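Hello forum,

I keep getting stuck at the same step: I have a sequence, I want structure tokens, and every attempt I make locally crashes halfway through. Rather than fight my setup again tonight, could one of you with a working pipeline run this one for me? It's a single chain of 337 residues.
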Amino acid sequence: MADLSVAQRAALAQLIERCPDRVLTQLSGLAGTMAGDRAADLRDMIEVEALDRRRRNIAFGPLLPLFQPRADGLPGLGFPPAVLGRLWRSATRNEPELLPQLDRADDLSRMIADRLCLSAAFALRDRAGEIWPEDASGQAQELAACLDLAATARRALPHLPDWIGRSGPETAAELKLALRQAAGIAPEGASRLLEVIFAHLEDARLILRVAALAAPGGRELSAETALGESELGLFVDRILLALARRAAEAAAFDPAGGEADLDAFKADLDWCAETLAEIDMALPLKADSAWGKAVRQARLKVALSLSERFSAAERAVDAVLPVERTALVGRMTRPTP
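Reply #2:
Ran it on my machine without issues. Output:
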């Protein structure tokens, strides 16, 4: 059987390039069951693309979550996934000989990865129209600024399990050092590094632990006030806004409604309860502060919603169970099942 023609290779290359990772894996499995020279060529093209993506994911690893929307729907810094491939090709265009070094998990590999991130930042600043032609809001420059922080983020992110787990003075010092280094790269560097950390947290509420750990210390301001006046306050606001929204949705639940979603109601209650517990543990708030009032309102909404549901359940049980009058004291009786 004849090999693939130039036109066929070009068309397949474009198709493979646009495939999401999951689809590319499926395509690789399908190509493995095919016979013939053209199938072999297709397998080779898929293997080359898969290797290139692995190297891209190593180099851009600290920023990769920014190219995917959050599963929980909370707002956060993000960029279109389609930009990732074009950015990678532009960053590696002039130095393809460096790419095999990324296959080694050592200091040299990390140095090469950091260098490629800087190359990507330069490419965005010089050729933004080529890499991101649909950008109309200046997000390309924001992405370039994030790429400037890739080396700092790469060193910091391995400490993330410690920051959200058992923390101590040394752990707090590491986090604050990373934020200072990011702020030294750009005025908004600390905020961008926090966005990167936030993107790496599958459970957004854990950012409260990071915020509490990184909160500025001092005698002049309380921890809550200092936190609210820093770039960390934005992330607390995000969690509290989500808490208020989900508490309101739980309070508005109507079990008698035709479109009542019991699973969604339960998920809202669970999320609110876990979030309130996380706030109590990681970020104690003053009752009269704006954050404290928001938490109290959410707590009341959840409590009232549960109270109403329990009362409704009792009435429903009483309505269907057979009851009889039972004597208490003297002539006093009460209905019992």
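Strands lie at 324-327, 333-336. If your local run keeps crashing, start a new thread with the error log.
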